[in-house]
Amino acid sequence: MTVLKTSMRNFLAHKGRMALSAIAVLLSVAFVCGTLVFTDTMSTTFDKLFAATASDVTISSKDSSNTGETTSNTGKPPVMPGSVLSEVRKVEGVEDAEGTVFSTSVTVIDAEKKNLSPTSGAPTIVGSWNRTDARTMEITEGSAPKGAGQVMVDADTADKHGLKLGDEIRWITAVGTHSAKISGITDFTITNPGAALFYTDVPTAQRTLVGESDVYTSVNLTAAPGVSDEQLKQNVLAAIGGDYKVLTAKETADENQKDVEGFMSVMKYALLGFAGVAFLVGIFLIINTFSMLVAQRTREIGLMRAIGSSRKQVNRSVLIEALLLGVIGSVLGVGAGVGLAIGLMKIMSQIGMDLSTRDLTIAWTTPVVGLVLGVLVTVLAAYLPARRAGKISPMAALRDAGTPADAKAGWIRGLIGLVLTGAGGFALYLTSEADKASEGSLWLGLGVVLTLIGLVLIGPLLAGGVVRVLGAILLRIFGPIGRMAERNALRNPRRTGATASALMIGLALVACLSVVGSSMVASATEELDKSVGTDFIVMQDTGQPIPPQAVERVKSVSSLERVTEYKVHEVALGTPDGERVTGKDISAADPTYATDLRVETVQGDLADAYRPDSMSVPEKFAEDHGIRLGSTVDVAFDDGRTGELTVRAITTSDTVIDGGAMYTSIDTLAKYVPADKMPLDLMVLASAKDGQQEAAYKDLKAALSDYPQLKVRDQTDYKEALQDQIGQLLNMIYGLLALAIIVAILGVVNTLALSVVERTREIGLMRAIGLSRRQLRRMIRMESVVIALFGALLGLGLGMGWGASAQQLLALEGLKVLDIPWPTIIGVFIGSAFVGLFAALVPAFRAGRMNVLNAIATE
């Protein structure tokens, strides 16, 4: 009980210092719990949606996915004949049957040619209004569509784009462009997952989405009373055989959930990874806090030992303080995590995915995980300072002396750090020497871990040299104040090293990702300059195929010299070594593709691959399957026949663009694939006539003005788009890493604040002999800046090393250019100085307000 009282007294006596550490615990726990609540809520939302929208039994084409996704390379959804509907209506146990047609391979535009598709990545769905949809949606304005001239839109899409009854919209499909006026607006009675929904009647959906009548993408069955879904499924299979896909409501919901689980898992573990970084940074803050608090209570600890307290009791006292800190920070963090999850839901609603707080899901495991993690990390971080406190002898503590083993322990720590850093550097070297990415990634992971731990351990040793250099460059110009700031930073190298290490971790990740991202852009840009021989690239950013009518528009542009179509089709290959390789894509293009994309060959000429019944294979595939120039490969085309194609060229596998692709001609593909199964173009390449590049660029954009989903890019546009995509990804990652940076800043604030308390008497004496408040504040700010810059140097240097090693792995995939983004690196370094200034504001202000006489009288 005495130990507990002592711990409580000490905890409350330093509540300001503890608060900063508690904030670090709070932020880290909040990020973990917020991630778990957010992803659990998304899962609940989709569970409810899939359960509500699934019929008792659903019948669809064998070619359709289990989730009902209808995107295909033909641009049309897989369908089944209308006779299936007639047959299943007679099946025992069927109370009701309804045929539906819908497609996600569509683009919907308004009268001003504005794309109405969601920006969140959710699908755009055009389909027939049916009773299953009516269960989860309510018509709030107008009426359901009747006839070819009417369409109904969901309320969220209508609100977002300002659509109202009577407005005309158009949808673009592989069949053509079709227009209708809005007859009704329907709203979700459950949470809208973000899709844009447009409803027509069944004949209009058949005509505009498929181009046929009396076909359906699915048939929805309702079971008669007393008939289970599983029994109904068996009855249907007995009646129509195994030619179609038949799923119960549970199977449909499970498949849909499985489809989104992959995305949610990636997002969940990525966010938890950033939370882990924040926890790691927080550990340094907590270690520093307790190390300094223990050092400031050295005399008190000596008195406790002198009157009979054992080492265990002193140790236990410090750990109880850490436990209190962990519990308070974790409890607050759990609550903040729920708030963070709600905030994320609001953000998702702004970009189109409406997640209702009615579905807010807080599993019992979430607060448990938050509390256990927060408390465990805090107690473990405080263990070393607690153990150090327990080892102080009573006499040494009463003399206010440190532990005799400190210096020896520092050298041992430094030696271990040097060994680990050297081992990590060697692992990074082996990464650059690896022949396979899988092997190299293992060395890279090991190198990252070892160098990080090693630099943390040798941080105190490096502090002496690096801080002196920084002081000579930056602080000496401030005269005696600068020199005092330098000495203060050097006074306790371990503390300075730990504080800088917290900042180092976040900045190392920033630098590493900056190098990787910049190298990817530079490599792709170099590859584009070297390989692409066309002027313009036309494609959809979503990866969906190009409508055939749009391709005709491209071909009609008179200022173009040539137009090259590019398609992709799935095949199965019978290779000379007797192996059958399935699920491979073959790229079919016009013969001019060999000119538009200058692919390097190791054998043969790529132009020969576009001869009848010919193809090319990549070098690695040829080596793995014993293929040589002139070998024949049995190619089974999906939904087509099997043909024997002769290998006329073997291309290098060492390329970024179309890396590993197999090529053949569109004529060869058309020979073996029926016309109704021919894939649409994924990309169209166009080259202008000599001297007409600018005119052709304008003409192309004008010709495709009715197709806002298509992007017309010249090589400069394409490079900018690539840079923007990688830049957006990096900015998102930097935003998540900001949490670790914030925690590191709290660490600097805490270190300075505790350092000021530790030097109270010294500050009083300096003030007494003439140091002004302004000079005192400047000294503390300079100290903070030099610590921040020390951490930035370590982090940026380490991160660039990681990034350079990671680029060597990318080089195995064809991304050969190493590009150091110096503007970003320099900007981060300068920004670190401002971080130091910001972190010192409060400690410097409090130091300046000290009463001189009281400070001198402090023991």
UniProtKB/TrEMBL annotation:
Residues 19-236, 496-700 form the MacB-like periplasmic core domain. Keywords: Cell membrane, Membrane, Transmembrane, Transmembrane helix. It is found in: Cell membrane. The keyword Hydrolase does not apply. It comes from the Bacteria. Its main location: membrane. Belongs to the ABC-4 integral membrane protein family. The chain crosses the membrane at residues 269-295, 318-342, 362-384, 411-430, 442-475, 496-516, 732-757, 784-804, 824-845. Residues 60-83 are annotated as: Disordered. The lineage of its organism: Bacteria, Bacillati, Actinomycetota, Actinomycetes, Kitasatosporales. Residues 64-75 have a biased composition (Low complexity). Residues 274-394, 736-851 form the ABC3 transporter permease C-terminal domain. InterPro entries: ABC3_permease_C (IPR003838), MacB_PCD (IPR025857), Macrolide_Exporter_MacB (IPR050250). It holds the Pfam family FtsX. It is a multi-pass membrane protein. This is ABC transporter permease.
